[in-house]
Write a structure and sequence with these properties.
Elements lengths: L2 H8 L3 H10 L6 E2 L5 E2 L2 H15 L4 H8 L7 H31 L12 H10 L6 H16 L2 H16 L3 H13 L9 H13 L16 H8 L3 H18 L1
Helix pairs in contact: 1-3, 6-8, 9-10, 10-12
Amino acid sequence: MRIGELAAAVGVTTRAVRHYHHLGLLPEPERRANGYRDYTLRHAVVLARIRRLTELGLALAEVRDVLADDAGKDLVEVLTELDDDLARQEAALRERRARLRALLETEDGLAAEGPVAPELAALFAGMGDVSRSPMAAKDREVLALIETMAGPEDRERLMGMVGGVLDAPDGVERALAVYALLDELADAEPDDPRVDEAAHALAGCTPRELLPAHVGVDADGGFLRVLYADLPPAQAEAIRRTLRILTEERR
């Protein structure tokens, strides 16, 4: 058989056949006097096996192990590993679908800063309508960012602490009052007396455990620098003073 006939018979491309030759998966056939490869039934059998193995999801390196006479892994071992990997993928897909269903059932999960985890969406819903507060919108964006960056344990801890603030007596009202104070600073100067008022009000709503152990309040790099740069000067100063209050209380 010519290479085109072999490829057509097995259902692969001639390019794939050449690639398998290059990788050493498919032995090179004898060549006729005119230089053309002359494929035998044995080549078709091996090529068909390569196709079946790759369709199962095996990588070509694993196919080589299976085909080798002194295989480092036998077919049962390779297929068992593949089955385990597929099981992990199935579990991940089920989890993703569950999150999608939760988002579709929770309107707040698809808000401007969404999609977010159902737990965070529930916190947003508990705040009510905050569309008129630019600082509340900014806070939601930051929470969504932190929720994305955090690992599972830190994410659960964050949601618990923020939820505890909102669930406290008058928690939502206090949070809305802080947003209002910060919104008033949008066009103020950093030395405005209201900056200190907003900082103390925000510190009063912030769980002490929320502050990382070695946070640099005046950090020149990292997350805080980016956060300060994204806020008007007076609001950035209020956040900076809030962190100073919290760090001094912790000493």
